[in-house]
Amino acid sequence: MMSRTFSAHRPLSVQRPASFRLSIDSNTTALLSRRSHPPPSSPGAELETLKVPTYYVSGVQDKGKGVVATQPLPRGAIFLEEQPLFTQDPGCTNSNILSALVNCTRDEQREYFKLANAYKNGGKVLPALAIFRTNSFACDDNQQTAVAMQRRGIFLIAARINHSCTPNVGRVWEPARQMMVFRTLRAVLVGEELCINYVDVLGTKEDRNANLVERFGFECACEACAMQGEELAQSDQRRAAIRRLYDEVSACLKEPTLGMRKAQLALRLLQEEGLALYESTFCFDAFQLCVLVSDFANAKAWVRKAWEASCVSSGPDGLAARTFKMYWANPRAHRLSGTMPRMVLSGPV
């Protein structure tokens, strides 16, 4: 979805941009870049890095270790910035991992071998490499780099952040600082566990758990997966609808009114599911539909909302936020501007 492909290791939460091509006619195409950055409301002081300890690593029921908030965290707060213990190319071997560990302290080595090993029961992957594959994160902000080619890193604290199908945390790699930055996607309470998503969360419970078992060797027991009966059926239907709408909006270039209705429906379903992920994607879709028909007033409202969402997930200095801010200042700069006959669509609710 927002990340159309997921590696066998920890995926980008939040999020890598995907792109798709929409046909205006048989001879003309327009590339609409879609951002997979998860979300806000009013970026400002609340987005600053908090200066006091905001989390602790502790035992979590049925999950082993986890990361828990020690104080209330506002939406968009940076609670963890971590440099990798080491990084490796995707084709690394067990020997490569052991060589990298030689340069670590004994305490770091001990902590490394305490991390989860999704390959333990199979025994086909040697332990050092198995732990790397299970716990590594992509350290690459180049949107053109294929998932299978991304350099990956180990983060001893971040590796303790567990999965949820309704994550409250997003992350982004900052290459200038060689740092992985984790932000809250919504307000978090004291004592609440901080979670990212390891896999695509827009499948049904059955699909999500099959993916988790295959890649990480466990089934999820988050709030979304704990639902039963009609409640679970409705949740599965909403998530399946969001996945379908993600593709359908991209096919509505010739029908911007229909595309807008679909984007707004997707945003409503995301809210009902409590999913902060993908908000900026659909807001930016709505923006592009507006500029297509020269509805620049509503376009500015939509791209501002996309900017706010990106500020929460990846920070105001992230590529997506900077791009959205540019279009907020001048929506006519978008390549699709004025492509279709003028009409008025609708803005955010």
TrEMBL record:
Pfam families (alphabetical): SET (PF00856)
Residue span(s) of domain SET: 45-199
Annotated InterPro entries: SET_dom, SET_dom_sf, SET_domain_protein
Record PROSITE patterns: SET (PS50280)
Protein name, entry field: SET domain-containing protein
Lineage: Eukaryota, Fungi, Dikarya, Basidiomycota, Agaricomycotina
